[in-house]
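Ops channel
N.P.: pipeline sanity check, posting one input/output pair.
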């Protein structure tokens, strides 16, 4: 088990636990797609939900020693709807409904939430074979909670802030507070110094790095040392040289305790 303690842990219930379920990009053949399991004071949430979500959860559970499964999951926070961040919602929703017999809350900004059902899930989750005329609805599988920018959105013991990033589709970075500790996540974005300043207010934050419309590693490596000390890399390509990185790369299934 890889464990990194970044703050004083009094008891397991008061520790803010963070486990990356995956660290790869959309084209990776080595890693699961990027996403996180967060746990604090008995509340458990996912940040993003890529397929195969139950397999990545099981392997992260074994690696981290945390109890990571759909039955104990309370919510999913979605940064955006690209497949490598949201393709696991269908399987998660079906498993929660038919097997776990529970409803999971989805949290997202309005610009993401409005497309989740009609443009992402309805075509495959609404039809029912028996009786064929019946149709399932979003509320059969999920609860929804819309997040606003410039406020601290509350879910259980978590306070969640979101901020728009520079990406093809509506995408939102996150700052998530649990107790007195704060975790940040860039989500997908082009290089944006103002976003990094915003994320740097967290105790630790994960920032993507990749080619194309993402953030070049060289831009992040040139940041001040104090910023790089708080930063962890995620969403990196398979050929990324982790051994030579001046910023710590996250590892799939590692346990981070704030």
């Amino acid at each position: 088990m890889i464990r990194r303690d970044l703050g004083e842990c009094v008891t397991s219930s008061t520790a803010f636990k963070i486990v990356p379920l995956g660290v790869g990009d959309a084209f990776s053949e080595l890693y699961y797609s990027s996403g996180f399991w967060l746990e604090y004071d008995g509340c458990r949430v996912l940040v993003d939900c890529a397929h195969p979500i139950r397999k990545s959860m099981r392997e992260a559970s074994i690696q981290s020693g945390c109890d990571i499964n759909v039955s104990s999951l309370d919510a999913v926070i979605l940064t955006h709807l690209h497949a490598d961040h949201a393709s696991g919602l269908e399987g998660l929703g079906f498993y929660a409904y038919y097997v776990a017999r529970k409803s999971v809350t989805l949290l997202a900004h309005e610009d993401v939430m409005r497309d989740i059902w009609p443009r992402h899930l309805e075509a495959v989750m609404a039809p029912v074979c028996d009786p064929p005329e019946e149709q399932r609805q979003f509320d059969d599988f999920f609860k929804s909670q819309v997040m606003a920018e410039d406020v601290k959105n509350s879910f259980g013991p978590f306070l969640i802030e979101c901020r728009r990033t520079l990406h093809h589709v509506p995408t939102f970075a996150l700052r998530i507070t649990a107790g007195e500790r704060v975790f940040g996540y860039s989500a997908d974005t082009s290089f944006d110094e103002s976003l990094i300043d915003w994320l740097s207010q967290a105790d630790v934050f994960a920032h993507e790095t990749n080619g194309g419309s993402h953030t070049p590693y060289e831009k992040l490596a040139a940041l001040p040392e104090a910023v790089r000390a708080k930063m962890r890399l995620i969403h990196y390509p398979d050929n990324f040289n982790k051994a030579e990185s001046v910023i710590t790369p996250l590892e799939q299934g590692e346990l981070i305790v704030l």
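N.P.: looks fine end to end. Confidence is low (pLDDT under 50) at residues 7-11.
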